[in-house]
Design a protein that fits this description.
heterotrimer, A alpha+beta, B mainly alpha, C mainly alpha, B: mainly alpha, two-stranded antiparallel ribbon, 75% helix, 2% strand, C: mainly alpha, MetI-like fold, two-stranded antiparallel sheet, elongated
Chain lengths: 529, 325, 311
């Protein structure tokens, strides 16, 4: 028996030794990420994890920096020729992994493919609607024409991956998943895609930009937070993303690991039923029906003031969040510098509630998803505690995201089912116009506004200001118009913002991770210190 | 014999159909998959277009009709999320699950059999009592809780073994396996142990009672009287005799290992089909759930069939007809 | 039980030389049960667990579901801390400030209710089906037993997962799923016993007396099938509690806002690595003790009621 034990011990030690030798011999980076991509076809699914991975291999014309400001991508520069024409100039030395130079032909083929991928669960089509493309002065210049002034062309094109014409025209999503495309111009290329397990990338020898630190990158999918942290602590991976708030303090205190963090583009907020005379989950405390109090601004203000945002940030989010006052934090494009988070003031809130005629409070049920946003259930429980202290009688119900979003969007005969929900919103484009329009624009199918307006808030002034902003090409003017729109929306409390999440990465000591607002983990931006 | 096969086959089809109808309509009641797929920035028209492309805009009855029609053409549908044929997704993950289940089975035999035989040979020793108490504990410990504890102890506190994932794979005879490298064994050790725990307890109990029964048999007493060495008696007489029932039970238990791997795979991020099922349930990826049900039921019927046949070969008194009463 | 003719219990091992004292079968059973010290300890533990969950509102400092009593500022306090509400949290508090000791007792209630209710309904359903199957016989019997075989050939966790996927989350849905998973065990057990009983003299006698079918089934055969059912019931209850915890842990079981033990463990899982072990550890211990206690009792009951099955 003891001989057996010592054999095991010996082989274990040799395994470990072997493991560490392997790490040092190769320039390999092992990343553990929390969300799995559904495909490595960059045009298949507009989903964070897919885009994050695709950025290693396929470049868009316009890039985004860590705080989502636009920077040169495959295009080294761009400008407007007139109100409805944009001109992009490609980088001269850009080459695909197969060695061929990138030309306008490839770009146009990519734009043709992106909106038309069969069975795409979330298509890129809407980013390209209303645009036509043609070659400019040479095969490195492309013109984008629109029917009306479209300031968001560079922003929209920053989400579309460019690939070689061959890949765009000949390959299906399955071919991409089998790593058959050699037409990416980014710093890496895919070598293996194993759903549920890992994706392996290899340095693209023909990349014309700065040589990345790693020859090989393995991205592993570790969906459970503690498992991800355990993998980092055990040395199975070098970098992990999306650190569970509870573990941040401990990792920070451990000299063997480094934390990288930045404010995210995601806001956690409450959406309120503002379109029904009688809201289904609101009654008087005795249970008798009452008029929907959430349509009254003072009630919304009282609720917002009753939320102790700092307590949620400190006690539930472990400081991995910042109290919120609008859809995006102030360092993003189109935000208002004037707005401030509602101050926690229970007395004043109770006063406002009494002024509005609800001295005795009312009964309210809050709904939310369980497991969609960081600590979502706990946030709802905390908010319910706070509203209880305001004098309401609060019930909560959380459900799997699959049920929740379905019911919250169309649960009551095609209309939103709930009275108050907790949800989150990430602004993929890094500016406010899309968020304001989707969350608080008046619901209008033809115009495409209010798509995620699950409270049916409507404010004519907000709509018109947004319309003007979205037709203003001048960046400065547009930014101030959007700031104005934000003020209109949040002075009227179309939604009650709770906090902005912080994105947090942890790595073993000696690595510097670029913390990004868009939650992407980019291997070529992870450097040795 | 032949009619027996047909009946078994018919039953399998019945189960599969019942489960499919349940899953198909049930998932539809739980929620609309479209909300789990789209990116939140999409506007109403884009959402409607996506629903139309995936066939989710049609009434559920019609969707079911198209599914059944596809079934007759050998098409189980494509995953809403991944866009690939659901059956290929599942088969692609099956290898990892099988590898884990087989490793767990081996572990159950290697650990459980000697312990159980020891407890059977020396029922009154203190060590035997400890073993049996341990087996009760093994039956009672919830798998998921043990998994967490294993990670805590062996990965985080002591740091011996990796906390999650599967090791690098090699291809042998067209089958991908991670068991050819030390790194692979290091990765599989904890999840296999976690999955094996219940079966180790079962094994201990089976081996103990089998050993005790065999010890009381005349031929063992006779062998003892003849002065045969203890090790020979154990090897030749006892082991041989308890092996048949143990192999049968373990065969039956293999199915439950495959099913319980859902829990283990989730905790240890093991890229098998159980984890895929759980993700599909969470995302309402109906085609994958349906395909999983079909694959697993077929697998079970197959396993049971093999065991029945083995049994009838090993024990000629058993006939392959079903007893009426 | 005392009104039963006691046929199946007549083989209890304690029946030595006929004693002068008249013993009811239950007394004989109890005496045999109490011979095993470990089982008695298990029974005591089980009684303690059930009792404390029953009187939870009177022995806990906090109703963990009452939002007016829970304060976020109390969250994640280590065991033994003083809370804002003025009591000491001996087992610490969880992520939103619930007292864990209170949370565990209330969670235990949910776990036990789910286990026992689903067990009892499944037992009733399974027994009825099994009895009918045995007594009616013929095609119906064949059909039912096929169904039972099929059901038992599929692992419980798999069936439960599929059902929960189709039904959704919630206490009622979990109970339904657990009933579907369990009924077949009872049906098979009862049918087997009933078939043996059916051919015994007392049933022939009852038939000769011209008693109705249903009276024979329910008044004469059923009581004699109870012993094995009780064995199955204990084992299955432990199994059901464990299964519910597993499903809840996987995020497809009970909702998080009124947590069972499985949900408490799952909620605490995220704190395991940040030295706040208690949020997940204590509920886990409570779950483990409950299941061990039931299994110890169940093991002994089985040994006493059916010495031939002794393993």
């Amino acid at each position: 028996m003891s001989r057996l034990l010592s054999f095991f011990r010996a082989s274990l030690i040799s395994c470990m030794a072997l493991g560490s030798v392997m790490v040092h011999a190769q320039q390999e980076l092992r990343i553990g990420v929390s969300a799995e991509p559904s495909s490595i076809d960059p045009h298949y699914h507009n989903l964070g994890p897919n885009n994050s991975l695709a950025r290693h291999v396929f470049e868009p014309l316009v890039g985004q920096d860590p705080s989502q400001q636009l920077i040169p991508g495959l295009a080294q520069s761009w400008q407007t020729l007139n109100e409805t024409t944009w001109e992009f100039k490609l980088r001269n030395n850009a080459r695909f992994a197969n060695g061929r130079p990138v030309t306008v032909e490839d770009v146009i083929a990519s734009f043709r493919r992106a909106p038309n991928v069969p069975r795409s669960p979330a298509s890129f089509a809407q980013f390209l609607t209303g645009m036509t493309f043609e070659q400019g002065a040479d095969n490195k210049t492309i013109l984008v024409k629109t029917s009306s002034p479209a300031p968001l062309v560079p922003t929209n094109l920053s989400v579309i991956a460019i690939m070689s014409k061959d890949c765009a025209e000949k390959l299906s999503t399955e071919d991409f998943n089998a790593a058959r495309c050699d037409g990416g111009s980014g710093p890496y290329r895919f070598t293996e895609f194993k759903p549920g397990d890992r994706t392996v990338l290899e340095r693209n020898p023909n990349y014309d930009g700065a040589r990345p630190s790693w020859d090989k990158v393995t991205v592993r999918y570790l969906t459970s937070g503690p498992a991800r942290v355990a993998a980092l602590l055990a040395g199975d991976v070098d970098v992990i993303d999306n650190i569970p708030p509870a573990d941040i303090a401990k990792l920070r205190g451990n000299a063997n690991f480094t934390i990288a963090e930045t404010l995210s583009n995601r806001v956690i907020y409450l959406h309120m039923d503002q379109f029904r005379e009688n809201s289904p989950f609101i009654t008087a405390k005795g249970g008798s029906p009452i008029k929907n109090p959430l349509r009254e601004l003072r009630v919304r203000q009282a609720l917002s003031m009753a939320i102790n945002r700092q307590a949620i940030v400190d006690r539930i989010m472990d400081k991995a969040a910042v109290p919120a006052e609008q859809v995006l934090a102030k360092n993003f494009f189109g935000t208002s510098q004037k707005l401030q988070p509602s101050k926690f003031d229970l007395k004043a809130a109770q006063g406002l509630l009494a002024d509005a005629g609800y001295k005795n409070g009312f009964k309210l049920k809050i709904h939310g998803p369980a497991g969609r946003y960081t600590n979502d259930t706990q946030i709802i429980e905390a908010i319910a505690q706070m509203f209880t202290r305001l004098g309401l009688e609060v019930e909560i119900e959380t459900m799997p995201p699959a049920n929740f979003f379905s019911r919250a969007s169309t649960g009551a005969n095609g209309l939103p089912e709930f009275s108050m929900i907790l949800a989150g919103w990430g602004a993929g484009t890094g500016e406010t116009s899309g968020s304001l329009r989707s969350l608080m624009g008046t619901v209008d199918k033809a115009k495409g506004s209010g798509a995620a307006n699950r409270g049916r808030f409507s404010n004519a002034k907000l709509d018109s200001t947004l319309d003007i902003a979205l037709a203003t090409v001048d960046d400065k003017k547009r930014a101030s118009l959007l700031a104005e729109a934000s003020e209109i929306a949040f002075n009227d409390l179309g939604i009650i913002p709770v906090h902005y999440q912080t994105n947090v990465w942890a790595s073993r000591k000696g690595l510097a991770v670029e913390a990004r607002a868009d939650e992407y983990t980019l291997a070529h931006k992870i450097k040795r210190q | 014999m032949l009619s027996y096969f047909f009946r078994r086959f018919g039953q399998a089809i019945f189960v599969i159909l019942a489960m499919i109808v349940l899953v198909f309509f049930g998932v539809n009641v739980v929620g609309d998959p479209i909300w789990m797929l789209i990116s939140p920035e999409m506007d109403q028209q884009a959402i409607a277009a996506t629903a139309a492309a995936l066939g989710l805009d049609k009434p559920i009855g019609e969707q079911f009709f198209f599914f059944i029609k596809g079934l007759f053409q050998g098409d189980l549908g494509r995953s809403f999320v991944h866009g690939e044929p659901a059956i290929l997704l599942i088969l692609g993950r099956m290898g990892a699950t099988m590898e884990l289940a087989i490793a767990a089975l081996l572990m159950a035999i290697i650990i459980g059999l000697p312990l159980g035989m020891y407890a059977g040979l020396h029922p009154d020793r203190r060590a035997s009592r400890t073993i049996m108490a341990g087996s009760i504990l093994g039956f009672s410990l919830p798998t998921f809780w043990v998994g967490l504890m294993l990670i805590m102890i062996f990965s985080v506190m002591i740091g011996w073994l990796p906390a999650s994932g599967r090791g690098p794979t090699d291809t042998v005879l067209g089958i991908q396996t991670s068991l050819l490298s030390l790194e692979g064994w290091r990765h599989i050790a904890l999840p296999a142990l976690n999955l094996a725990l219940l079966k180790i307890s079962l094994m201990i109990r089976l081996a103990r009672s089998g050993t005790r029964e065999a010890m009381s048999m005349d031929y063992v007493k006779f062998a003892r009287a003849k002065g045969l060495k203890e090790s020979v008696i154990i090897r030749v007489h006892i082991l041989k005799n308890i092996l048949i029932p143990i192999v049968t039970v373990l065969g039956l238990e293999f199915g439950s290992l495959v099913a319980f791997s859902v829990v283990t795979e989730t905790i240890f991020s093991w890229p098998g089909m159980g984890k895929l099922l759980l993700e599909a349930i969470q995302r309402l990826d109906r085609p994958v759930i349906v395909a999983y049900v079909m694959v697993v039921v077929v697998l079970f019927v197959f396993i049971n069939l093999i065991i029945d046949i083995l049994y009838s070969v090993l024990d000629p008194r058993v006939r392959l007809t079903e007893a009426k009463a | 039980m005392s009104s039963s003719p006691g046929q199946s219990l007549s083989t209890a091992p304690t029946q030595g030389p006929v004693s002068a004292r008249v013993e009811t079968p239950f007394q004989r059973f109890a005496a045999a049960f109490l011979e095993d010290r470990v089982a008695v300890a298990g029974l005591a533990l089980l009684a303690f667990i059930i009792l404390s969950s029953l009187i939870a509102p009177w022995i806990t400092p906090q109703n963990p579901y009452d939002l007016t009593r829970v304060d976020l500022l109390d969250s994640r306090m280590p065991p033994g801390s003083q809370t804002m509400e003025g009591f000491t949290a001996w087992l610490g508090t969880d992520g939103v400030g619930r007292d864990l000791y209170s949370g565990i007792l209330y969670g235990l209630r949910i776990s036990l209710v789910v286990g026992v209710v689903s067990g009892l309904i499944a037992a009733t359903l399974g027994m009825s089906i099994g009895l009918i199957s045995a007594y009616v016989g013929g095609k119906l019997d064949t059909f039912i037993m096929r169904l039972v075989d099929l059901q038992l050939s599929l692992p419980s966790i798999l069936v439960a997962l599929i059902l929960v996927a189709a039904l959704g989350k919630g206490v009622d849905k979990i109970i339904i799923a657990l009933i579907v998973v369990q009924w077949a065990y009872y049906a098979r057990t009862v049918r087997g016993t009933a078939l043996v009983e059916r051919n015994k003299e007392y049933v022939d006698a009852a038939r000769a007396l011209g008693l109705s079918k249903s009276r024979i089934i329910f008044r004469h055969i059923l009581p004699n099938c109870l012993a094995p059912v009780i064995v199955v019931l204990t084992v299955q209850t432990a199994h059901a509690i464990s299964l519910e915890a597993t499903l809840s842990f996987l995020g497809v079981g009970l909702p998080q806002t009124e947590p069972s033990l499985g949900v408490l463990i799952a909620n605490g899982f995220q704190y395991m690595l940040s030295d706040r072990y208690w949020i997940s550890f204590f509920p886990g211990v409570a779950l483990l003790l409950t299941i061990v206690a039931i299994n110890l009792v169940g093991d002994r009951i089985r040994d006493v009621l059916n010495p031939r099955l002794e393993k």
